[in-house]
Amino acid sequence: MPHARKLILHVPLSDEALLAGFVEQCLNDGVALVAVVGPGCARVEDIIDEIVLADGSDGTRFLCTSSHPDESFEDVLNLVTTWEFERGDPVEEVRL
Fold first, then answer.
1. Whole-structure pTM value
2. Which pLDDT tens digits describe the chain residue by residue (96 residues)?
3. Would you call 48 exposed, middle or buried from its count of C-beta atoms within 10 A (0-12, 13-18, 19+)?
4. CA distance 54 to 48
5. Cβ within 8 Å of residue 54, ≥6 positions away
């Protein structure tokens, strides 16, 4: 089943090796936003950005990311829910 267009990824991850496959699935599913929340979220966001960019030769690979190290889950959920580009789309929480 494809992912929703807006995701909240909870960290810490159970296995960081799962991240590359997750990001590729997001790209295939047309995910527009991955908001990362929890301890170490900024580092995980950077890893996601590196996976998306790969070697930089494919300009069609795009995924908006954000990290929220000092925000409550409720604040992040509100931000993602009201995110301008997919305002009416559902939000999916993901744990890897």
1. 0.92
2. 899 999 999 999 999 999 999 999 999 999 999 999 999 999 999 999 999 998 788 888 999 999 999 999 999 999 999 987 667 789 999 999
3. buried
4. 10
5. 61
Helix boundaries (H) for the chain: 18-29, 41-53, 73-81
Cα-trace Rg, the chain: 13
Residue 12: which of 48, 36, 47 has the closest Cα? 36
Strand order in the sheet with 91-95: 64-68, 33-37, 6-10, 91-95
CA dist list (Å): 75 to 19, 47, 52, 70, 89: 24, 23, 26, 10, 17
Q: Look up tokens 């829910």; give the residue.
A: 81
Rounded Cα distance between 55 and 93, Å, is 29
Structure tokens at 39: 């301890």
φ and ψ at 48, to 5 degrees? Answer: -60, -45
